[in-house]
């Protein structure tokens, strides 16, 4: 599990504005109803993010992360993965997520992503450059989203697992050559689940295909270092926030 119920996202290192958010329910093209949380900036800057959570789905960490993005002026929506198999139930620490992770299908996930994008593009912010921001399993799904025609302006992946194969469709590392959007990858150097040679192979594949990318590894940082409680990695979290905001600003301008 990536984050427990007590985890909280670090505060962005910029002077923020006010924002407000709400729980909503979205409907995908196949009729699936799934939970999401949307956060609106009071002073929008003209960019949007779709947040892909970790294996637990939509829990409090990601709702607060959506608000932190909105406080920087970026409209955000965080989505749940398990509407088809777990309905609209809570995703707190008691949620037995693994049976639902095992049933996750990429095609249905991308259908849910499209519903979230459509919501953003028809909301008060209108259609703006949109980015995927994922964590752990969500980081993997962020990279895999880059192989689809989802119209993203860029992809951000925290500690993206590179060897997980969803439904026999290939791992993120195997499919890295198909990624068509700019990538910002953020990894912990002490993350036991993501070997350094896999991160290096990802960077090499993106180099070979010419996709714009920035792959950053923070020495000594573990999986899930991006947490307000991890004060010893506060500098890494601050740097990660700065890189994300620069990445979004640069590719929104394009």
UniProtKB/TrEMBL annotation:
Question: What are the residue boundaries of the Dienelactone hydrolase domain, all occurrences included?
Answer: 34-251
From the Swiss-Prot or TrEMBL record, what is one GO molecular function term? Answer: hydrolase activity
UniProt-listed Pfam families: DLH
Superkingdom classification of source: Bacteria
Q: What is this protein called?
A: Dienelactone hydrolase domain-containing protein
The protein's organism comes out as: Dictyobacter kobayashii
